[in-house]
UniProtKB/TrEMBL annotation:
Species assigned in the record: Rhododendron simsii (Sims's rhododendron)
Record key words, sorted: Methyltransferase, Transferase
SUPFAM superfamilies according to UniProt: S-adenosyl-L-methionine-dependent methyltransferases
Molecular function GO labels: methyltransferase activity
Signal peptide: none
Protein's name according to its UniProt entry: S-adenosyl-L-methionine-dependent methyltransferase
């Protein structure tokens, strides 16, 4: 009995000392996979969770969902930086939620901040068709894993097409796509990869790229207005208009409403039609080795990086320029 009490006392002391470590980890023991992390005395995690905190700056006003809340690592960061946010955190594991409330201060996020921000914790399957909010989510963070791997559903184009319906217009996904070497496409060879194409190593990004392909607009018969607007300027306008490249093309085409059609011969560029450069609707970055080497994806046109960087704290603004569009192979 004495030995048993001594062992229990030692265990208690070890737990107390663990709380003094720089980081508190919640692990899935079977897979040795870090599920959530809450730094002690330090805001940033030094991992992909930090990237999620940059999403509110580039989405419309409205609720943001976290699919795969875990113990609330991303929610803590997002409400710390954006205290007026309304977050909906979906987690399938009720026991994990209970432990997070006890040890990760998750319950603190379930109370409104002075500016109205709050985390609504929802227990259930984030991919269920019933998961939705009136008007759609402004943004959705997707961090769904099972047995240490990205959910296989996220590697299917149909899943992303269904999830897209949960977003409001101009809403975006930011996705933890897991490791680089989760499988190589059967239709691409390693010899063809470049720094701009290394995303092909990740099957989740490949599925996203098919679900959110590049949009290419063809302008024909646009004369005076096209002469004024250089292709570079038009592309800037399109980038700022988020998803609706076709609306720009339609607006420019309407300049021919004076009766001069596509074949009026008044274009002086040597061509009768001009192909706009495609706007990628998917962007990616790879975390550095010391931060886990995960791939992260962002849907929608690549934001203006200077503007995005300017509204973020230093820790995030320094890494914004690492985002790049998924270029066609």
């Amino acid at each position: 009995m004495v030995g048993w009490l001594s062992a229990k006392s030692m265990e208690s002391e070890m737990l107390k000392r663990t709380e003094l470590l720089l980081q508190v980890l919640l692990e899935i023991v079977m897979e040795h996979n870090v599920h959530s992390i809450r730094p002690s005395g330090e805001k940033w995690t030094g991992s992909y969770w930090d990237e999620f905190a940059s999403l509110p700056a580039i989405v419309p006003r409205g609720p943001i969902a976290i699919f795969g809340l875990g113990a609330g690592t991303a929610a803590h960061l997002m409400l710390d930086l954006w205290p007026s946010l309304e977050l909906h955190g979906w987690e399938i594991d009720q026991i994990l939620v209970d432990k997070a409330r006890e040890y990760f201060a998750l319950s603190d996020l379930e109370k409104r901040t002075p500016t109205g921000g709050i985390l609504h914790v929802c227990v259930g399957d984030a991919l269920s068709p019933s998961v939705n909010v009136s008007g759609g989510y402004a943004g959705i963070v997707v961090d769904l894993f099972s047995d240490g791997k990205v959910l296989p559903q996220l590697q299917e184009v149909s899943t992303w097409l269904e999830l897209h319906g949960k977003l409001m217009p101009n809403g975006r996904f930011m996705v933890n796509c897991g490791a680089a070497n989760d499988g190589v496409s059967d239709t691409t060879s390693p010899e063809s990869w470049s720094i701009d194409h290394s995303w092909v190593q990740n099957s989740t990004i490949r599925a996203l790229c098919q679900a959110f392909p590049r949009e290419v607009g063809v302008l024909t018969g646009v004369h005076v207005l096209w002469a004024i607007l250089t292709s570079r300027y038009v592309n800037q306008v399109i980038a700022k208009s988020c998803y609706d490249q076709r609306a720009i093309a339609s607006a420019l085409d309407s300049s021919t409403a004076d009766g001069k059609g596509e074949d009026d011969g008044e274009m002086d560029f040597g061509v009768q039609g001009c192909m706009l450069e495609g706007v990628a609707l998917l962007n990616w970055k790879k975390m550095p080795k010391e931060e886990g080497e995960n791939y992260v994806a962002l849907t929608g046109p690549l934001p203006d990086l200077a503007t995005w960087s300017a509204v973020l704290p230093d820790r995030l603004s320094m890494t914004v320029n690492q985002w790049r569009p998924c270029l066609p192979l």
